[in-house]
Write a structure and sequence with these properties.
The protein is of the alpha/beta class. It is built from twelve helices and six strands.
């Protein structure tokens, strides 16, 4: 994706180094992008709190995550804990205090031994499961729940999946993780098609958004279109095409040809479907079977996907805002819709 999404405050000088560090540790290009977006959120929070980089500690990160979750009802697009590890390696922040094994780390260690001993999984699979377990649980840790396992719900699991993962590629380690902490979700590979549409609507509902309509829309001229999701936000009607993909391993390796092929599919087929749906509804807004609310004066369209997608340029027709593209994640879509709500 070209261009930064927003200024990252005092962490700006570390963006490129952190990107290279993430890629060097095996993060996919899309995973690195999500981590850089999280860096930006943390950096802007530090700027508001008048904190310098050398004041960044585990306690400060925990305070940021607590405030972020309180304000938005969710966590950032990716974990910010690896950033603290990177900054320590660069001597930009104080070194880690003398090691004290945290309860969550102890649990993840037990989980690792269980995968190796009882499950007999390959070391590479175990490492993936260990990273996944720590990433999920560390973001839930609090003073009252030092292992991060209390009250895990299906909604939290689904939010985690939609936010961070390619559903078809997670494999058995995810089920093993939640079995270990006492919760077994539905098959992640099933969260696609209408299930993903329903998940987008459910996530929007958690933020107070009620869908305008879904399903088939028929004009008085007999023309028909399918609406995956739609929301009225102030004077704006958002018409959303929802599409969940299985990730191409070549994309994870940064293969430009694969990225370009993916872009053509996203843009030429699915985003165009969203654009023509917008035109269809706008032209027939007064048809009795459609009846767009009278307060709507603007029509927006977007393609919602589970993961951050590569956007090749800054063409205005590809972006909903300066920082969020029309091919966006559910969290990004909710951020845009929230901004369109009338101010009290």
């Amino acid at each position: 994706m070209s261009g930064s999404r927003r200024r990252p405050g005092p962490l700006g000088p570390f963006v490129e180094g952190y990107r290279a560090w993430l890629l060097g540790r095996g993060y996919s290009p899309s995973g690195a992008i999500r981590s850089l977006i999280a860096l930006g959120h943390l950096g802007r929070w530090m700027e508001r709190e008048a904190l310098a980089v050398d004041q960044l500690t585990a306690g400060v990160v925990s305070a940021f995550l607590a405030e972020y979750r309180s304000d938005r009802g969710r966590l950032p697009t990716a974990s910010v804990w690896p950033l603290l590890e990177y900054l320590r390696a660069e001597a930009a922040v104080p070194p880690e205090p003398p090691a004290v094994i945290a309860p969550v780390d102890q649990l993840v260690g037990e989980y690792r031994e269980w995968l190796l001993g009882e499950r007999g999984l390959a070391p590479v699979t175990v490492r993936s499961g260990e990273r996944l377990a720590h990433r999920f649980l560390a973001e839930r840790v609090s003073a009252d729940d030092p292992r991060g396992v209390r009250g895990i719900t299906a909604a939290e699991v689904n939010d985690f999946l939609v936010r961070d993962f390619d559903f078809a590629a997670i494999g058995e380690v995810l089920s093993e993780l939640f079995a270990r902490v006492g919760y077994i979700p539905n098959d992640p590979g099933a969260i696609k098609g209408t299930a993903f549409e329903n998940e987008v609507i459910r996530l929007a509902a958690t933020q107070g958004f009620t869908p305008w309509r879904t399903g088939r829309a028929t004009g008085e001229d007999g023309a028909r279109r399918q609406i995956d999701a739609s929301f009225v936000c102030g004077d704006t009607l958002f018409l959303i095409e929802c599409k969940a993909f299985s990730q191409n391993p070549r994309i994870e390796l940064g293969d430009f040809a694969a990225l370009n092929d993916r872009w053509k599919t996203l843009h030429d087929k699915y985003l165009d479907q969203a654009r023509t749906l917008k035109d269809f509804i706008k032209q027939r807004r007064d048809d009795r079977n459609i009846a767009v609310p009278g307060e709507v004066t603007r029509f927006e369209y977007a393609l919602c996907t589970p993961a951050v997608e590569w956007i090749p340029n800054r063409s205005p027709d590809l972006w909903l805002t300066d920082t969020i593209p029309r091919i966006c994640t559910p969290a990004e879509l909710i951020e845009v819709m929230t901004a369109r709500l009338p101010r009290a």
